[in-house]
């Protein structure tokens, strides 16, 4: 019975990269990963390809997605609802058990990534739209794909789940003021309206999914296997819409945006890992910190950028959606190899 409760703790949705909606693999009582979960590995491999294909489609036939921009928040709501369906109240127990460690992960996430976004925007002398987009990605909550990647890296899955959960819950209070502070020099930021949008597209759908899971758990369990593909397809559509909306500008800006995203994600992973080591959390927790800091909810960033700035400002989030999953899988494989060698 205890093992089932611990396993439930780590069943999460991956709302964007790594097939969102895929439950994180079960772990043992000591927090260590159970035998490799094929679905998780398949998610890490397949989802970037799906999103890349969707982006190519948006670039090649942008007219097919004309007028779809206003639907992006609703599409994100579908993804977040799927996230809620895979959650239970037990997911929040990790916060109570290790509050200071979760708080450290939360602070590291909301300090390192927004700060890096601002620094990179200045260092690369990005246009106002792209600079605001990069900063907004940095101000977004943790991408829940980090849970699966942490598992594959032999990291602390319980810590990963807790930080991802709390960063999502506090996003309405943190993301808008951070965006206003750091991106306000580039574009006007309506922080109040952004709070409302995050509540509507993130917290309400997640809460609704959680309620449905609590009331109709038996029925939801039957469709959990389909949630990853529903979420993945929805995120792919979001990326296609974002890319189509800025197709004309991509040819000139794509290389610069890719450089910004690679720097943002890579430095985030490195500094997140360094924060864990500096706090002497141990190797597994430091691996979790790397992914909780370096991987973002770029689906939310794309939605907010489209609604509050422009399709061009959403381009960094679309590129981040693909890249950080690829880099996360590679870094996880390397960390897992190192852990096996040292173990």
UniProtKB/TrEMBL annotation:
Bilayer topology annotation: Multi-pass membrane protein
Biased composition (Basic residues): 1-13
Region (Disordered): 1-35
Positions of transmembrane segments: 43-65, 71-88, 100-124, 130-150, 157-178, 223-247, 253-276, 315-337
Presence of the UniProt keyword Hydrolase in the record: no
Subcellular location: Membrane
Keywords for this protein: Membrane, Transmembrane, Transmembrane helix
Domain of life: Bacteria
One family name in Pfam for this protein: SBF
Entry keyword annotation includes Membrane: yes
The protein, known as: Transporter
Source organism of the structure: Streptomyces lasiicapitis
């Amino acid at each position: 019975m205890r093992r089932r409760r611990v396993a439930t703790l780590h069943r999460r949705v991956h709302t964007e990269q790594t097939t969102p909606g895929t439950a994180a693999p079960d772990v043992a009582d000591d927090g260590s990963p159970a035998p490799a979960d094929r679905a998780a590995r398949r998610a890490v491999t397949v989802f970037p390809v799906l999103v890349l294909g969707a982006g190519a489609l948006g670039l090649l036939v942008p007219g097919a997605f004309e007028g779809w921009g206003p639907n992006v928040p609703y599409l994100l709501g579908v993804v977040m609802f799927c996230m809620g369906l895979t959650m239970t109240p037990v997911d929040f127990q990790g916060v109570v058990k290790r509050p200071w460690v979760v708080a450290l992960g939360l602070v590291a996430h909301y300090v390192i990534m927004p700060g890096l976004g601002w620094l990179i925007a200045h260092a690369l002398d990005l246009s106002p739209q792209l600079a605001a987009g990069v900063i907004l990605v940095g101000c977004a909550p943790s991408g829940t794909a980090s849970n699966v990647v942490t598992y594959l890296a032999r990291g602390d899955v319980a810590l990963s789940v807790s930080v991802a959960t709390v960063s999502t819950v506090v996003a309405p209070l943190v993301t808008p003021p951070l965006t206003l502070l750091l991106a306000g020099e580039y574009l006007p930021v309506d922080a109040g309206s952004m709070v409302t949008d995050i509540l509507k597209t993130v917290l309400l759908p997640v809460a609704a999914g959680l309620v449905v899971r609590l009331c109709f758990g038996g029925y939801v369990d039957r469709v959990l296997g389909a949630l990853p593909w529903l979420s993945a397809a929805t995120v792919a559509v979001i990326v296609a819409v974002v890319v189509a909306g800025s197709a004309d500008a991509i040819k000139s800006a794509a290389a610069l945006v890719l450089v910004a995203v690679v720097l943002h994600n890579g430095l985030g992973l490195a500094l997140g890992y360094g924060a864990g080591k500096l706090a002497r959390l141990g190797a597994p927790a430091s691996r979790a910190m790397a992914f909780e800091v370096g991987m973002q909810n770029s689906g939310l960033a794309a939605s907010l950028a489209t609604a509050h700035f422009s399709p061009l400002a959403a381009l960094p989030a679309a590129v981040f959606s693909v890249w950080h999953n690829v880099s996360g899988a590679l870094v996880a494989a390397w960390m897992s190899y190192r852990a096996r060698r040292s173990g």
